[in-house]
User: Fold this.
Amino acid sequence: MTKLFFLISLIFVLITFTSQLEKQKPPTAAHTELTNYGFPIGLLPSSVKSYTFNQTSGEFSVELGGACKITLPPDNYLAMYSKRVSGKIVEGRIAELDGIRVRAFFKWWSITGISSSGDNLVFEVGMITAKYPSKNFDESPQCEGKHSSS
Ligand SMILES: *[C@@H]1O[C@H](CO)[C@@H](O)[C@H](O)[C@H]1NC(C)=O
Assistant:
């Protein structure tokens, strides 16, 4: 009887543990700020060192440890984050974005804005837009190339 109870407890602990792993918590305050404005944490790599934010104007600046390379889901576009990423954020919209580029058609393109509409994120590259489900950005990615940058 006690053995059975022990086994059931163990299974319960394992289930709780794995379900907690699935819901990743925002790694930094900058990520939490993203969620406050209706964006998923996966838009920023986990290597945020510091950030400044003017709540009145929405202007922000995020310092990463260094330039950061990430493969973006779901189409595996290569994205390059500069050491400093800045822009202007309001509910559901990031404008005047500077510091994120994606590689497509043999060129680097600057992502100039991102909108959040319902379950989708709309990325703007100048006049061109591309829509992706937000759920692809539920986790904050690690920078590639370096094993440990901190
Ligand atoms: C924040 O933005 C407002 C409006 O643009 C500006 O007046 C203010 O000086 C800014 N504050 C800081 C600390 O930069």
